[in-house]
Specification:
The protein is an all-alpha fold. Helices cover 69% and strands 0% of the residues. It has one domain.
Length: 81
C-alpha cells in the first residue's frame, strides 16, 4: 500500500535494493545536470528533494525490519548529500 516491499520473512532487503538502485540512477542524472553547468547548491537541493525524500518515505514502517548491512547501504547513500 505504501510502496514498501516486505518479504514473507519480514525482510526489506528487496525494498532497500530498489531504493539504492533508484538513488544510483538519480545520481547519474545529477552528474548529467552538473555537466550542463547546474551549480552545486541547486544540485544539492535536487538531491535532497528526490533521494532523501525517497529514502525516508514510510521509513517508520520498514526501518525496524532492516538488517545492519542494508542500514549501511542506506547510510552510504544518505551521506552523499
Amino acid at each position: 500500500m505504501l510502496g514498501v516491499v516486505i518479504a514473507n520473512d519480514f525482510s526489506v532487503s528487496q525494498h532497500v535494493q530498489q531504493l539504492v538502485t533508484s538513488s544510483t540512477q538519480t545520481n547519474y542524472s545529477l552528474q548529467v545536470l552538473r555537466c550542463h553547468r547546474l551549480d552545486n547548491a541547486a544540485l544539492q537541493h535536487v538531491y535532497r528533494a528526490i533521494v532523501i525524500a525517497r529514502l525516508t518515505y514510510a521509513a517508520s514502517v520498514w526501518r525496524g525490519f532492516i538488517k545492519a548491512s542494508d542500514r549501511q547501504r542506506i547510510n552510504s547513500v544518505m551521506d552523499r548529500a
